[in-house]
């Protein structure tokens, strides 16, 4: 399950515009029009990007309090937590491997 989330995360963020959208939303919630203007994308293109980000769970949306037609987009931290857990596992594996290699080299040097 976590592996699927990690795969989807990297697949979705392979697109530079979507990475830029995630960076922008990291600064705070924004409307689609603001994101389109900031990335230099057309409204239909931004709509497609946001649909993909929403389906992957990286982004959530809510309706504006004054106008239900206005959607505000924000980051969803859950997929990032799953990726961080995966990265922690990879890092722990490499730390163990490098520790074993270091002990091996030190043992050879002392022989």
Descriptive notes:
The chain is mainly alpha-helical and 111 residues long. The protein has a single domain (2-110), classed as Winged helix-like DNA-binding domain superfamily/Winged helix DNA-binding domain (Arc Repressor Mutant, subunit A). Helix content is 68%, strand content 11%. The chain is built from five helices and three strands. The protein has a three-stranded antiparallel β-sheet with strand order 1-3-2. Helix 1 (2-12) crosses helix 5 and helix 3 (32-39) packs across helix 4. The longest helix is centred in the C-terminal third of the chain and has 33 residues, at 78-110. 14% of the residues are buried. The model has no long low-confidence stretch (mean pLDDT 86). GO terms for molecular function: DNA binding; DNA-binding transcription factor activity.
Secondary structure layout:
Elements lengths: L1 H11 L3 H11 L3 E2 H8 L3 H13 L3 E5 L7 E5 L2 H33 L1
Helix pairs in contact: 1-5, 3-4
User: Could you name the CATH homologous superfamily?
Assistant: Winged helix-like DNA-binding domain superfamily/Winged helix DNA-binding domain
Give average pLDDT, whole number.
Answer: 86
How many helix segments?
Answer: 5
Largest sheet composition: 3 strands, antiparallel
Strand order of the largest sheet: 1-3-2
Going by CATH, the architecture would be Orthogonal Bundle
Instruction: Report strand %.
Output: 5-15%
SSE class? mainly alpha
CATH class bucket: Mainly Alpha
Question: Keyphrases for this structure?
Answer:
111 residues; mainly alpha; Arc Repressor Mutant, subunit A; three-stranded antiparallel beta sheet; 5 helices; 11% strand; elongated; DNA-binding transcription factor activity
